[in-house]
UniProtKB/TrEMBL annotation:
GO molecular function: catalytic activity; molybdenum ion binding; pyridoxal phosphate binding
UniProt superkingdom: Bacteria
UniProt keyword annotation of Metal-binding present: no
Keyword Cell inner membrane belongs to the record: no
Record-linked PROSITE patterns: MOSC
One biological process term in Gene Ontology: DNA repair
SUPFAM superfamilies in UniProt: Methylated DNA-protein cysteine methyltransferase, C-terminal domain, PK beta-barrel domain-like
Identification of the protein by name: MOSC domain-containing protein
This protein's UniProt keywords: DNA damage
MOSC domain mapped to chain residues: 21-147
Species whose genome carries this gene: Zemynaea arenosa
């Protein structure tokens, strides 16, 4: 663990109950619950596969940008003595026992253009995403420590993230294109690029045969995919259509692990 650390306090907390709805702030005296490996209870981004279960911003950064808390759709605003340590690879440990591994910077996107029209100003300034490593209760006013370089940060390149995440898929399990996009921490639009990522990655020693389509069909991009899955005990479902090979998602779809980070 790095010796670099700083202390601070939780200023604001927010949850998004459903996608497309506004953030809801926790008022002083109330708390939100975090579950290890899953995220914030009743938050739309809670997902065991995702490296972006929580978005954290610095109070000092918001003040410098002239943005009110919550405007960037963050889940947590913190005030710390050294805001520069709020970066991928750092860890946040709160007085309520919650530990967050910071994974990557949150990219500026069209969703915040009404707040910051010039998105170029927001490069690495929208906040930092993270995974819940240890669960517990978060409340406004909680003390915290921010520890640098405790965890590996996720790569910036989507292809490198693809390689990193696919290497985590366990034997005997499969993921759909959409699940892989979630695990990479990228937008849903990347689903269309998945066949291309798979083709570019053949020969890199990755378990690409564990990736299937939305219906569980084998995309026939990876050589000997059916044989490789069979060797791991994945039983092919009798297809509804001649020539279409698929697996039973109810049995073999990987849901992620509680402490996968």
């Amino acid at each position: 663990m790095s010796s670099l650390s700083t202390t601070g306090v939780v200023r604001h907390l927010y949850r998004k109950i459903q996608h497309g709805q506004p953030m809801q702030e926790s008022v002083p005296g109330t708390a939100i619950t975090c579950v290890a490996g899953l995220g914030i209870v009743e938050d739309a981004h809670a997902n065991r596969l995702s490296p972006r279960q929580i978005l954290i911003t610095s109070e000092a950064e918001l003040e410098e940008l002239g943005i009110p808390p919550g405007a960037l759709r963050e889940n947590m605003v913190i005030a710390v003595q050294d805001p520069a340590l709020l970066r991928p690879g750092s860890a946040i440990l709160t007085s309520g026992g919650v530990e967050i591994a910071l994974t990557m910077y949150c990219e500026a996107c069209a969703r915040i253009r009404s707040v910051i029209p010039d998105l170029k100003r927001m490069f690495h300034r929208r906040g930092v995403l993270g995974r819940i490593v240890a669960g517990g209760v978060l409340a406004p006013g909680d003390g915290l420590s921010l520890v640098a370089a405790k965890y590996p940060s996720w790569p910036d390149s989507p292809l490198s993230r693809f390689h990193q995440f696919v290497s985590m898929i366990p034997p005997g399990r499969v993921l759909r294109y959409r699940d892989v996009a979630i695990g990479m921490g990228v937008a849903d639009s990347f689903v269309r690029a998945m066949p291309g990522y798979i083709r570019r990655s053949v020969g890199h020693g990755l378990p690409l045969h564990r990736i299937v389509t939305a219906t569980g069909a084998l995309p026939h991009i990876v050589p000997m995919q059916e044989q490789l899955l069979a060797a791991e005990g994945v039983v092919r479902r009798v297809p509804d259509l001649p020539g279409v090979q698929s697996v039973d998602l109810l049995t073999y779809l990987w849901q992620g692990e509680p402490n996968n980070h």
